[in-house]
Amino acid sequence: MFKSRTSRLTARDLALVAAFAALICVLSQGAIYPFGNTVPITLQSLGVMLAGALLGWKRGALAVLTWLVLGAAGLPVFAGGTSGLAKFVGPTGGYLFGFLVGVVVIGWLVERAAPGYTPVRGFFANVAGLVAIYACGIPVTAMVVHTKTIWAIAQSTTTFLPGDLIKAVVVAGVAAAVHRAMPELLVGSPRRAADLPERIPAP
Known about the structure:
The chain is an all-alpha fold. It has seven helices and no strands. The relative contact order is 0.16. The model is unreliable at about 1-5 and about 190-203 (pLDDT under 50).
């Protein structure tokens, strides 16, 4: 029988956390700096949204936290293969912390939507996560750069919006398909666990 696992992690959970941390590492390798912007365009947010949408808030947050710890330890897993503690106090430091907040927001909303997760609900969950990421990232960038106000930095982030919204749509569709095929994936959610049928052990 399926049981809620809100207080402990299984080996399967840890494997999923490691896999998604690795995915975010891979998606972080490419970086484009548009029009001299201090914040690059990357696929990091795609990995963060996938982690929250597929694993829920707890395991998604652990995946993002694992990625952040690896980068802080010196492994080249941040945007463009960078790393180090200095990244956390640089122009993009707010976004790094924002990814952790964003994955929690997305994962929490996804778990609340289960088992009635739809692409539309998933899209709005992803957008809420993006808002959290920007809310953390923009003020820190403005504070570090000094030469621009928060409003100016916010205006410059419009460069990222089209791509991020496309990622939100893609992740919502992928997550809906995955949850239909593997409804037990969000078993960490009490609501989802309660709605899953009992599994009768084989004789």
